[in-house]
Structure formats: C-alpha cells, structure tokens
Amino acid sequence: MTTTPETEAHGPVDFVLLEFPMAGLTGRASEELMRLVEQRVIRLFDLLIVMKMEDGNVEVLELTDPGGPAESFSYFAGAQTGILGKEEIAEAADAILPGSLAALIVYENIWAAPFVAAVREGGGELVASTRIPAPDVMAALEALDDAPPVA
C-alpha cells in the first residue's frame, strides 16, 4: 500500500499523567519510555515534568537541568509539539498531590498503524474505543482466579 499524507495511517494517540513521590525516584520509568521510543512501539509527541511543592506551588521542570529531579528524562528534551499547554499543566497540577512529580506524556501507538491501515483498506471505521485501567483488569482476572470452577 502506498501512503500519502491524506491516507497515512496512524495509531491511537494517548495522554497519560503519571505521578511519582519526590522521594525514591529511580529513573527506571524514563528508561522504559526510551526503550519504547527506540523500538518504535510509540512516537513521543510531548513530555512535560511538573513538580508540585508541599505548599502547592507548581513548577514545570527543565529536562536538561543536570542534577535536577527531571534529569532522568533529559533524553526527551526536544519532545514538545505544543499539544500540552497551560490548561493541561493546570489540570495536572490539580490532580497530583503536593510533594510529587508528574510526567505529562502524549504519544502515538505506532505499533497499531499497520492494523489501522488494514481496517481502512477494508472500509472499516472506528466506532467506539475505551481504555480499561490496568488495576481494573488485574482485579477482574483475580476475581476469575478466585471463582469456584464451573461444573
């Protein structure tokens, strides 16, 4: 299939807000995010790190600040398309606890693009989509494991 800008298939785009306690930051999350980008599982559009102080003040951190709380994300310093703006930062700040650090991330699931293209080629259209949070899935699976066997 030849793609043009009009027919190019894209994967779903997600926005996530991840909250971390200031104490105990390991950098492992940034390493896994880097792996997903390098393996072309996702395309990173935007990444902002927001810190909410104990007094409620909020600061958007520079990813290139050596020794700063966001330094483990320095690899992504250029990931700013402008999708995330002041409104998203304010909403994130309202959602997180004082004394925490938050990563606001917008990414495309490029692994899904070939499937999207195949659906389009067959005349298919997305009618509905939802995301089930991982804790809900885990709870449902645990409930199934705990259920008595069906006779």
Automatic annotation (TrEMBL):
Lineage top rank: taxon: Bacteria
Name recorded for this polypeptide: DUF1269 domain-containing family protein
